[in-house]
Recover the amino acids of this structure.
């Protein structure tokens, strides 16, 4: 008997916590369905035993899948190389999940570990279903860009400008670019780095009219001066000549919001 799980891909515009909670919810639902259908030869076991098997296995696998997706996104841009992302996720997830399935299946249904010779029998189904679920997460997960809005009259202004270095204090923010653990802030007085995550910055940018255009970029709407399109992609040119990529996953939402 074998099992595998759908792992959540970390998505632009979603916080890691939201992604994890969503993934665990999907894993629980999938575990219940697999238990009810008696998938992968478990149909002869009592329903309660199938639930004890499938739901924990799916939850454990989903948690590992979340870790893997966070690792993969450091080296692979899911928007630009979706198939490479699927391959990377499948390779990283499948080995540990195969060990999990092999040990859990033996202990729960037989009360002992299966012989090591049975381990390869779990690998094929695990790889196959992990690849399918990874592809579904990558290609069907339509993330929406985080859009920020100008603060209405009488409400508190955006908090992010307070983080500008002294030499840029009071400058107009044109874009915020993620560079590893830092953010490069592009302004009308030049640019500088601060130590901060883009996901945190997006919350503090509320109060300024703008949007994510890519998982590594936030752009002020009034800073856009030109849009170039080609090869299925779009690039924004801002005041000062800074060029910013537009993710394929965000392109439609930005068009509908009137960005270009």
């Amino acid at each position: 008997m074998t099992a595998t799980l759908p792992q959540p891909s970390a998505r632009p515009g979603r916080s890691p916590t939201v992604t994890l909670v969503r993934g665990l919810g999907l894993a629980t639902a999938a575990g219940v369905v697999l238990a009810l259908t008696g998938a992968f030869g478990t149909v002869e076991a009592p329903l309660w035993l199938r639930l004890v098997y499938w739901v924990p296995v799916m939850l454990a696998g989903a948690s590992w899948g979340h870790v893997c997706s966070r690792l993969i996104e450091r080296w692979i841009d899911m928007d630009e190389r979706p198939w490479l992302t699927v391959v990377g996720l499948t390779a990283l997830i499948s080995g540990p999940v195969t060990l999990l399935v092999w040990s859990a299946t033996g202990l729960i249904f037989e009360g002992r570990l299966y012989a090591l010779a049975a381990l390869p029998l779990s690998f094929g189904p695990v790889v196959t279903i992990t690849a399918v679920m990874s592809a579904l997460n990558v290609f069907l997960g339509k993330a929406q860009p985080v859009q920020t809005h100008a603060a209405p009259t009488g409400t508190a202004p955006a908090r992010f400008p307070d983080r500008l270095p002294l030499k840029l204090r009071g400058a107009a923010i044109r874009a915020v670019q993620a560079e590893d653990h830092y953010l490069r802030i592009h302004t009308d007085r030049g640019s500088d780095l601060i130590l901060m995550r883009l996901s945190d910055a997006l919350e503090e940018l509320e109060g300024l009219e703008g949007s994510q255009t890519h998982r590594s970029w936030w752009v002020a709407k009034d800073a856009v001066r030109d849009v170039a399109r080609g090869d299925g992609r779009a690039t924004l040119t801002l005041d000062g000549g800074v060029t910013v990529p537009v993710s394929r996953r965000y392109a439609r939402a930005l068009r509908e919001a009137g960005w270009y």
About this structure: The helical segments are 16-37, 47-72, 82-110, 119-140, 198-204, 248-256. Residues 1-14 have pLDDT under 50 and may be disordered. The longest strand covers residues 173-179. Strands lie at 147-148, 173-179, 182-187, 190-195, 210-214, 217-220, 224-230, 233-238, 243-246.
